[in-house]
Amino acid sequence: MKKVGLFGGTFDPPHIGHLKLSQTVLNTLALDEVWFIPTYQPPHKEGAVASPDHRLNMLYNLLADYSELKVSTIEYELKGKSYTYETVKHLCKEYPNTLFYFIIGGDMVEYLPKWYKIEELKRLIQFVGVNRRGSEDYNHRGVLMVTMDEVPVSSTEIREALKKGKEPHGLTDEVLHYIRENELYED
Q1: pLDDT digits 0-9 by tens, 1-30
Q2: Which end of the chain is more exposed for a tag (fewer CB within 10 A), N or C?
């Protein structure tokens, strides 16, 4: 049976921290692949700054050289607000011979009880929480925990640097080129 990690997010923009986290989980749990699932419309946040198509294209640029890291457009196909339960339900139906591992930040583990249809979701997939070395050690019954070195980069900081005309830290050359070519995140 194939083992696939699911890594959801707005990826606004995607950066090297996302790469490092996905590769750490892939290697630690001996997964076959990790699928990045960009949200079409995040359910718990204001809308993303970049359009869904730009975020998708940036992800393709980020992952182009990594055969074990893929992009899933499932939430673009479903449209509307992206609830993990609905996404996973569709993936399990479409890929019945695949074990799915849903990757979240260690700090999100404590919020799992508040997720939409969490008990049903737990029956469909295995959650994987990623703690950064040196941060608070979150733990939750039934969640596999993986530890990785911290990568000091965030999408928010990248957007702020670009808005101010500064050189952002944490982007690949391909993603930065795409951002500049499309004039994203500028003031």
Answers
A1: 999 999 999 999 999 999 999 999 999 999
A2: C
Residues 6, 97: Cα–Cα separation, whole Å: 15
**45 vs 29: CA distance, rounded Å:** 30
Q: Collect contacts of 131-136 with beta carbons under 8 A, ≥24 apart.
A: 131/106, 132/106, 135/106, 135/107, 136/106, 136/107
**Order of strands, sheet of 126-132, starting from the edge strand that comes earlier in the sequence:** 69-71, 33-38, 2-9, 98-105, 126-132, 144-148
Of 154, 24, 43, the residue nearest 101 (C-alpha):
24
Going by DSSP bridges, is the β-strand pair 98-105/2-9 parallel, antiparallel, or unpaired?
Answer: parallel
Going along the chain from its start, the domains and CATH numbers come out as: 9-79+122-181 (3.40.50.620)
Is the pTM for the entire model greater than 0.90? yes
Amino acid identity at 63:
L
